[in-house]
Amino acid sequence: MANALVFHANLQYAEIPKSEIPKVVEKSYIPTILELIKSEIPFALNITGFSLKYLPKDLITLIKEGVESDLIEITGTAYTHAILPLLPLDRVEAQIMKDRAVKERTFEVKPKAFWLPELAYDPIIPAILRDCGYDEVFVDGEALLFSNHLNSAIKPIKPLYPHLIKAQRGEGFVYWNYLLGLKELKSAIKLVFGGKVTLKAVKEITGIPVWVAVNTAVMLGIGGFPLMNVKKAVKWIKGLDEIILYGTDLEFFGYRDLAGYVLSIQKLRELINELNNEIVLPSRLKHSGRSLYLRTSSWAPDKGLDIWTKDWGNRRLNMLSWELKWEHAFLAENSDARGWEPLAERRLDAFKAIYQAWREGYGKH
Fold it and tell me: What family is it from (predicted)?
């Protein structure tokens, strides 16, 4: 059996102050990547092209050594973690190509797999990815399951583990919601299937499903959350073949806590040993033989885009950034200015970029 790992790194993180960036690199990025390489555990590193300017040269060198040793697979993504389905098509392409150029220059590799920020997808994006040299794209596995019905206005998507989401938000009797949520999570894992899929899209592309339920179980297990531990997480996911075990933020390791729990790479290594499956690079996962349509979606609990569109500040940013065509547009399009719970400084970065672009372009008379 084979599994894979993906670590997503974004130093424009909505909830992390910019002053904390050196601390994030020191406490999370360096020790986690170093430990994975020392342990010879292969993984995909998805870091935004914009974030690379904040990495010390020693870390860049370490990552390049990991790539050369076939332990690290560099993925492409949107340069500033933009929600691609919310952008005009020329800006989608600009985000993709800017990131690709930075990766090729920094790591001397041509990424073949693409990580969609927030796994936000629409059926035209695969065509642009193919045009830009990508063969594979990471997608939300649960959204694939819900894509048999395409109109969410008629049939809204209900989260698979609503009580766990309530517990995470601190709603109601938290422990009771958490207990019910664990049962829902265990049931959701039973819906997981292994392997890549062919996505029916404007241009077909290979999709690599990321299963939030699996990811969550692994995080709860290695984090030592109540009623969870490494052995229980392994018991829940045992037998799942050709899947991604972990596919989310690198910052959760050593820096950013989850309800007071910080993940450790040593515990992840313990889970890998307990599971006793081969760990491979995501590109080496096998194809399931499935060919599926994926609806416009994201990995938000309702699989929609409301998080980045409904708030009035987000609406204003989205409207104004559609008008931009210059370099400043990249910062304006950063999803973490919209975010799940963005800091004011992150949101202001986007508004400032819009104003600067306007003054340098449209605002000139």
Answer: Belongs to the glycosyl hydrolase 57 family.
